[in-house]
Structure formats: C-alpha cells, structure tokens
C-alpha cells in the first residue's frame, strides 16, 4: 500500500500548475528512486532467503550506483537511462520471484502477495519502458503523441494499483492479522 501511496503523491505533485521542468524532474527522480528501493527490498527478502548476505551486497551495490548517479548528475536532470536500468532490474527481479514461487512444492502462487506485486510490477514497468522508448525514438513528438503515452502510462499505473491491492487482500486475513509471514 505504501507503493500505491508514493505513486499517488508523485502524480498529485506533478499536477501542480506552473511547475517548471526541473521541479518535475526532481519530483519524478526522488519518488521513482524511493519506489525502486522499496520494490527491491520486498523482492530481495523473498527471493534470497537462503543467501541474505549476497542479497544485501547486491542491494547495496544497486542503491549505491543509483544514488551516485543522481548525486553526480543532480536530481533536476531527465535520467532516462537510469530509469530504464531501474525498470529493467525490477522486471528481472519480478520474473525471478514468479519463477521462484512457481518452483515451490505447494503451488498456491495466487495466494501469495508477492505474486500479485510481481505481476503488477512487470505489467507497469514493461509498459513504461516500451512507451518511453517509443516516444524517445521520435525526435519531434507531437503533443497528441505525448498525451497518448501519458494516458497509456496512467492506465498501466491504475492496473498496477489493482494488482497491488490484490496483494494486500491476500496479505491480510479476515481479522486484519497477517495471513503468512513472507514479508518479515
């Protein structure tokens, strides 16, 4: 639910009238970096249960690289290559987590909140990468093309919210207590 809230606040802040390009890039970069870090934390706790040390090292390297690039370039820059790297990492980790869930003996992956988070993340981030790469291929983007890509990304974001909402339903039991201890 925290991921949905972060995305909602980011989109709400981006709707502020008379917001210049630098301020928009700062908002996008800060919120996307926070979102990526949260997603990696969720996935690393599930995927690397046996090798927590390796997972912590890889996570630290990833966060250090992202933080270093943002600090060197500045948060006001449009960081499309960094966004593409972040999206690729989330897509890879999501696919890896679904494969890990499917490889278990008890095949109740639809009851696992991580499955729904992974499906929502795959759907959104693949759409994000495709739309941004197609829009960036054209030098002269028409305003209709840009607004169409924003609409497509908004639809993908709403779909992601739906999948994350499903994850929260499977995470909590009827009385509000945890159904299973997968995220601890």
Written description of the protein model:
It is a single chain. The protein has one domain. The two termini are 16 Å apart. By secondary structure, the chain is mainly α. It is globular. It has helices spanning 2-14, 21-47, 52-73, 80-102, 113-137, 143-171. The longest helix is centred in the C-terminal third of the chain and has 29 residues, at 143-171.
The proportion of strand residues reads under 5%
Q: Total number of helical segments?
A: 6
- Give the termini distance in whole angstroms: 16 Å
Summarize the helix and strand pattern as letters.
HHHHHH
The largest β sheet comes out as:
none
Keywords:
184 residues, mainly alpha, 76% helix, globular, disordered C terminus
SSE order and pairing:
Blueprint: H1 2-14, H2 21-47, H3 52-73, H4 80-102, H5 113-137, H6 143-171
Could you give a quick summary of the protein structure above?
With 184 residues, this protein is mainly alpha-helical. It has helices at 2-14, 21-47, 52-73, 80-102, 113-137, 143-171.
